[in-house]
C-alpha cells in the first residue's frame, strides 16, 4: 500500500469513528426513509474529524468495546481532515427489533479519497449505528487488526 494510502486509511478510520451521531427518534419508527437518514447521519458523525471520541463511540456498534481504537485514531492530527460521503444505503432488513443494512461510502482525507468502501449499519438499542465490522475492515487496510476486531461482536 502506498504511504499516502496508509495515512488516509489511518485518518479515515479515525474519522469513521467520529461520524457517530445522536438520533432521538427510534430507528424502527418512520420506515426505510428515516432509517436511511439515521444511517447516513451515523456514518457522517463517525467519520467527521470534528466529532468527539464519546460521540464516535456512541454511533459505533458495540462502541465501548472499541473506545481505545477510536481514541487512537481520533488523536492523530490528520484525523481532523477526515470526512465521509455515503453513496448508498442498501436494503434495510428488520427482524424482531434488530436490523442490518449495507452501506457504500467514500472516506476522504482533505481532498484525497480512498476507494469506495462497502460497510454495514446495525440497529442497536433502537438506533442505527456504524457496524463495527466496517471499522475493522478499514483498520485492516492499514496492515493491522486490533484484538477487539478478532472476536465476534454480539
Overall description:
This protein is an alpha+beta fold and 154 residues long. It has a single domain (3-150), classed as Nuclear Transport Factor 2, Chain: A, CATH 3.10.450. It contains 5 helices and 5 strands.
Quick structural summary:
37% of the residues lie in helices and 26% in strands.
Give descriptors for this structure.
single chain; 154 residues; alpha+beta; Nuclear Transport Factor 2, Chain: A; five-stranded antiparallel β-sheet; 5 strands; globular; disordered N terminus
Q: What is the second-level CATH architecture?
A: Roll
Binned, the helix content reads 25-40%
Alpha plus pi helix count = 5
How many distinct beta strands? 5
Q: What's the SSE pattern? A: HHHHEEEEEH
Q: How can the largest sheet be summarized?
A: 5 strands, antiparallel
Shape: globular
Number of domains: 1
Q: N-to-C terminal Cα separation, in Å?
A: 32 Å
Radius of gyration using CA atoms only: 14 Å
The name CATH uses for the topology is Nuclear Transport Factor 2, Chain: A
Q: Overall pLDDT, averaged?
A: 80
β-strand amount: 25-35%
**What assembly state would you assign to the polypeptide chains in this entry?**
single chain
Low-confidence stretches: 1-25
The secondary-structure class comes to: alpha+beta
CATH class: Alpha Beta
Sequence-ordered SSE layout with sheet pairings:
Blueprint (H helix, E strand, L loop, with lengths): L2 H16 L12 H17 L5 H6 L8 H8 L7 E14 L2 E12 L2 E2 L3 E8 L2 E4 L1 H10 L13
Antiparallel strand pairs: 1-2, 2-3, 2-4, 4-5
